[in-house]
């Protein structure tokens, strides 16, 4: 607080963010209260606010009031921030200064306090594709673009060296391209569908495939969703749902009157066969018709100690499949309509990909697409 007292530039940014809020309120047709704040764009108002800010930073009472809110109302302040950003978006307002302050504060907290991400073993693996998509985006010849991943990696100050190795990099980029193309193809046929991304982590596929009509639900365990809310916010068509998909009732908040597209990328290989069946049955039992886009792993590849990036986490692999047909006995409603190896995409970009597609064609991960109705 004492440092802020003399930092006029920072205090002006706080004031500018406040003004962005006032503009959004007026844009929505609401009156500015109290009446003395109606002239919030004036030089006189700015000077008054700056004097008040400096007074707070310089006095013991001001510091006490500010620190009391900072220490004892963290969840409340975080919720208000999320709601305010949602309000900005709903009114079509722009708020670049607000966003800049939010990034600065988050960066400060990560650097100076114990706010590093705390995830479970499986959720921890979400940092692998995040790091890979970020690094790929910054290449001159990037095959995918995920600016959100770049921003998150920078803000979290994550060392990507152990998370981004050649085979994992090529595999993640291949599956990103293949999953994106598959979702876009389905959305062209069912533009008003509901997409459900289970085990979403910090994925931003919605931005890459959005057609302006789809409703999207990001679903993951509570700790992952809590972390996600620091970097993403909900809109009228994009929602976040903290839920355990192994427990009944996780689909209750998702509309049932549309074609549903369920995406499970980098997830099922961490489940047992029984857990896979539980998830499949809950999906086909909750929605009348839809499609399941699923990443599958071969049993011979399920040794996390030999995996070039998963070995650096605490995650353990579960049940693997030789073919997508292995899932059919687990749910009678499912029909396998397509299955493609990641090699199909990987061989386009490297000699190793071409060789691998020939000598180990059946061992790489695959994208399997199922339908039920």
Describe the structure.
With 373 residues, the chain is α/β, with parallel strands linked by helices. It folds into two domains: 2-112, no CATH class; 166-372, Vaccinia Virus protein VP39 (Rossmann fold). It contains 15 helices and seven strands. A seven-stranded mixed sheet has the order 3-2-1-4-5-7-6. The model has no long low-confidence stretch (mean pLDDT 88).
End-to-end Cα distance: 60 Å
Q: Given this structure, which CATH class of the largest domain is correct?
A: Alpha Beta
DSSP helical segment count = 15
Count up the domains.
Answer: 2
The appropriate CATH architecture of the largest domain is 3-Layer(aba) Sandwich
Task: Tell me the β content.
Answer: 5-15%
Radius of gyration: 24 Å
Q: Low-confidence runs (pLDDT<50, min 5 residues)?
A: none
Quick one: biggest sheet? Answer: 7 strands, mixed
Write a short abstract of this structure:
The protein has helices spanning 2-5, 8-27, 43-58, 60-72, 74-91, 96-112, 121-124, 127-137, 147-156, 166-189, 205-209, 222-228, 273-286, 343-346, 351-359, and strands at 194-198, 215-220, 238-242, 260-264, 290-296, 335-341, 366-372. With 373 residues, the protein is α/β, with parallel strands linked by helices.
Please describe the structure with a list of short key phrases separated by commas or semicolons.
Rossmann fold; 7 strands; 373 residues; 15 helices; 2 domains; 47% helix; alpha/beta; elongated
């Amino acid at each position: 607080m004492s440092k802020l007292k003399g930092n006029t530039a920072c205090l002006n940014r706080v004031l500018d963010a406040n003004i962005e809020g006032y503009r959004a309120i007026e844009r929505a047709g609401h009156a500015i209260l109290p009446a003395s704040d109606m002239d919030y764009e004036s030089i006189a108002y700015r000077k008054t606010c700056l004097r008040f800010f400096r007074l707070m930073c310089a006095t013991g009472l001001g510091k006490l009031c500010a620190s009391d809110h900072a220490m004892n109302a963290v969840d409340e302040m975080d919720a208000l921030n999320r709601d305010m950003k949602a309000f900005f978006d709903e009114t079509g307002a722009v708020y670049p200064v607000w966003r800049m302050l939010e990034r600065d504060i988050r960066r400060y907290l990560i650097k100076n306090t114990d706010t590093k991400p705390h995830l479970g073993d499986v959720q921890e693996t979400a940092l692998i594709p995040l790091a890979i998509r970020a690094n790929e985006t910054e290449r001159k010849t990037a095959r995918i673009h995920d600016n959100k991943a770049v921003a998150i990696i920078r803000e979290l100050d994550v060392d990507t060296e152990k998370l981004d190795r050649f085979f994992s990099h090529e595999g993640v980029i291949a599956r990103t391209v293949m999953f994106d193309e598959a979702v876009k193809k389905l959305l062209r046929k069912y533009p008003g569908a509901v997409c459900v991304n289970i085990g979403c982590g910090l994925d931003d596929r919605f931005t890459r495939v959005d057609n302006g009509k789809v409703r999207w639900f990001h679903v993951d365990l509570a700790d992952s969703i809590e972390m996600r809310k620091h970097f993403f916010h909900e809109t009228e068509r994009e929602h976040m749902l903290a839920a355990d998909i192994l427990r009944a009732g996780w689909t209750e908040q998702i509309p049932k009157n549309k074609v549903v597209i369920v995406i499970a990328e980098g997830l099922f290989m961490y489940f047992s066969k029984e857990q896979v069946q539980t998830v499949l049955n809950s999906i086909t039992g909750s929605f009348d018709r839809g499609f399941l886009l699923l990443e599958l792993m071969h049993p011979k590849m399920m040794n996390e100690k030999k995996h070039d990036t998963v070995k650096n986490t605490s995650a353990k692999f579960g049940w693997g499949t030789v073919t997508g047909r292995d899932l059919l006995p687990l749910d009678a409603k499912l029909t396998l309509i397509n299955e493609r190896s990641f090699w199909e995409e990987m061989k386009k970009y490297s000699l190793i990909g071409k060789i691998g597609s020939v000598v180990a064609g059946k061992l790489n991960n695959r994208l399997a697409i199922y339908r039920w109705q």
